[in-house]
Design brief:
Keywords: Lyase, Pyridoxal phosphate, Transferase
GO molecular function: cysteine desulfurase activity; lyase activity; pyridoxal phosphate binding
Organism: Microbacterium invictum
Family: Belongs to the class-V pyridoxal-phosphate-dependent aminotransferase family. Csd subfamily.
CATH topology of the largest domain: Aspartate Aminotransferase, domain 2
Number of strands: 17
Number of domains: 2
Protein name: Cysteine desulfurase
CATH architecture of the largest domain: 3-Layer(aba) Sandwich
Strand content: 15-25%
Helix content: 25-40%
Number of helices: 14
Structural class: alpha/beta
CATH class of the largest domain: Alpha Beta
């Protein structure tokens, strides 16, 4: 019996046409048209190599990890921990710095609720510095996904802390002068996104981290929209904690990662409790394993973790610099073309900003959902709505937008198909009269 996984390979250079052959779903037809998939910001498609890795585990080594003495259990545990080491290495971390989660939302809630537990005195003495008191401040930004906003709202409500927000300029870039004023010695946590899931703009992580470090604040990074698209070294960025989600980076659903500096993970008390995260249990008391296991109660996402490791190997085989350059070229073509269409307003149209392959736009006189249905009828998949960032849409004076988000498997033909269809939307609905 062997648990060795199939090798994960990809073409040595980024040829999106060649890469598409690895993604079975991209050969599908939608409404009689070839599928133009431009919704990777919501969820990415999965290459055959990822599907094979998870399936191989389920066929050859499926078993509970960290619990059994039999051969399958040992093999499953080895594969699970090898996956941890692979994914940790993908973001520049050590294995013990990576906590498995169900996704970024769980990771952010884990951090917020763990800090809440420290505030009520749960956890080791090392947790005490994390405790919040009334008047302490938590700083986020006005461009956050709800997953990096609502947990902090809840933490502030439970602890008496004050929640503050760094505003955005009209072009979608963060107001760093305001950030310097908002981040003060009262600030205990600074939570922000690496790349806006609405604007596609890469935010100034180094500047925000420096401001937080000057006042001793904890930094929490949402890396969901950067992990699949940019070279990412979390320790080098200097953040204390960061989250990312597997299904947005060619991996399976139901798995993600929480990165943390070792001393921060050691200080955080557990959030979820139960089996597999303890050393000793009596009827009245429990002692917990060190990080990362103390945050991994219950049954773990073994197959999805193995699939995510295969996804990171695939991305690395293609090359993250090559991916970023390709997607940036797609974004430039799309942005330039949409600006030429009457009635199209790009959100976050900062001309010199670093960005990933993502644009959101408003179609004058046509609701985003109607625009999305028009595009879907032509086989073009985009996201419509507020993209779990309602306050940011309010900032731009719209209730919803159309979002096109590209990945390594998209081609210039995909962009051209979208642009041609967008040009037809307002005439179709009579909004150009």
């Amino acid at each position: 019996m062997t648990s060795a996984l199939p090798e994960t390979t990809a073409p040595p250079a980024l040829d999106p046409v060649a890469l598409r052959a690895d993604f079975p779903i991209l050969s599908e037809q939608v409404n009689g048209h070839r599928l133009v998939y431009l919704d990777s910001g919501a969820t990415s498609q999965k290459p055959q190599q990822v599907l094979d890795a998870e399936r191989h585990f389920l066929i050859h080594a499926n078993s509970a990890v960290h619990r059994g003495a039999h051969t399958l259990a040992a093999e499953a545990t080895d594969l699970f921990e090898d996956a941890r080491a692979t994914v940790a290495g993908f973001v520049g971390a050590e294995p013990e710095q990576l906590v498995w989660t169900s996704g970024a939302t769980m990771g952010l809630n884990l951090v917020a609720y763990a800090i809440g537990n420290a505030t009520i005195g749960r956890g080791a003495p090392a947790s005490t510095p994390l405790a919040l008191k009334p008047g302490d401040e938590i700083v986020t930004t006005a461009i956050e996904h709800h997953a990096n906003l609502i947990p902090w709202q809840e933490l502030a409500a439970r602890t008496g802390a004050v929640l503050r927000h760094i505003p955005a300029h009209d072009d979608g870039t963060l107001d760093m002068d305001a950030a310097a004023q908002l981040i003060t010695p009262r600030t205990r946590i600074v939570a922000f996104t690496h790349v806006s899931n609405v604007l596609g703009i890469v935010n100034p992580v180094a500047e925000l981290v420096a401001l937080a470090q000057q006042v001793g604040a904890l930094t929490v990074l949402d890396a969901c929209q950067s992990a699949p698209h940019l070279p990412l070294d979390l320790p080098a960025l200097g953040v204390d904690l960061a989250v990312f989600s597997g299904h947005k980076m060619l991996g399976p659903y139901g798995v993600g990662g929480l990165y943390g500096r070792a001393e921060v993970l050691d200080a955080l008390p557990p959030f979820l409790t139960g089996g597999s995260m303890i050393t000793t249990v009596t009827l009245d008391h429990a002692e917990y394993l060190p990080a990362p296991q103390k945050f991994e109660a219950g049954t773990q996402p073994v197959g999805p973790a193995i699939g995510l490791a295969a996804a990171t190997r695939y991305i690395d085989a293609v090359g993250r610099d090559a991916i970023h350059a390709h997607e940036r070229a797609l974004a430039e073509r799309l942005g330039d073309a949409l600006r030429e269409i009457d009635g199209i307003r790009l959100l976050g149209d900062a001309p010199d900003a670093e960005r990933v392959g993502l644009w959101s736009f408003d179609v004058a006189g046509v609701h985003a959902h109607d625009a999305g249905q028009f595009l879907d009828a032509r086989g073009i998949a985009v996201r419509v709505g507020h993209h779990c960032a309602a306050p940011l849409h309010q900032r731009f004076g719209v209730t919803a937008s159309v979002r096109a988000s590209a990945a390594l498997y998209n081609t210039m033909d995909d962009i051209d198909a979208l642009v041609a269809a967008v040009a037809e939307i307002r005439p179709y609905f009579g909004a150009d009269a």
